[in-house]
Design brief:
The protein is α+β, with helices and mostly antiparallel strands. Helix content is 11%, strand content 26%.
């Protein structure tokens, strides 16, 4: 499942949440520190593993 990175605009806490794609579309994420709802998704990188050799 994808890991989404967020930053709280209330307390500036950066945190990650693991959600399925469908959960990401419907879930309202809140800050784990202050429980605030003013969170913004951050840009993040990802890796993938394939069976093909480079």
């Amino acid at each position: 499942m994808p890991t989404y990175e967020y930053e709280c605009k209330g307390c500036n806490k950066k945190f990650s949440v693991i959600l399925s794609i469908s959960e990401h579309e419907t879930t309202k994420v809140s800050c784990p520190k202050c429980k605030g709802k003013r969170v913004k998704q951050r840009l993040s990188t990802f890796t993938t593993k394939t069976s093909r050799k480079s």
